[in-house]
Amino acid sequence: MSLHDYLYYVILPILAISSLVVFIRFVKGPTIVDRVVALDLIITLGIGEIAIYSIINNKPTFLDIATILALIAFLGTVAFAFYLEKRNKKDD
């Protein structure tokens, strides 16, 4: 089994099933924190799919896009955590 077969038949189905499960959590999440974590995980799975696409099609430029998307997702999560911290201090 070559690397491309492994990516097509093992990794991509796992990412697809994971995306479906996380999207269900995103829709059903009882709190906003669950939804933010699910959104962060969806972005992370998207980064994995971009990386696989880059490997399969031999286009390393897409890895730069994945890196930028990871930085934006990280900053969004940090900003949300900062917002929650400020909101909790106001409630006290």
TrEMBL record:
Gene Ontology MF, one: sodium:proton antiporter activity
Transmembrane segment boundaries: 6-24, 36-56, 62-84
Keyword Ion transport: yes
Keywords, alphabetical: Antiport, Cell membrane, Ion transport, Membrane, Transmembrane, Transmembrane helix, Transport
GO cellular component terms, A-Z: plasma membrane
Membrane topology: Multi-pass membrane protein
Major site of localization recorded for this protein: membrane
Keyword match Membrane: yes
Subcellular location: Cell membrane
UniProt cross-references to PANTHER family, sorted A to Z: NA(+)/H(+) ANTIPORTER SUBUNIT F1, NA(+)_H(+) ANTIPORTER SUBUNIT F
Family per similarity comment: Belongs to the CPA3 antiporters (TC 2.A.63) subunit F family.
Protein known as: Cation:proton antiporter
Organism: Psychroflexus salis
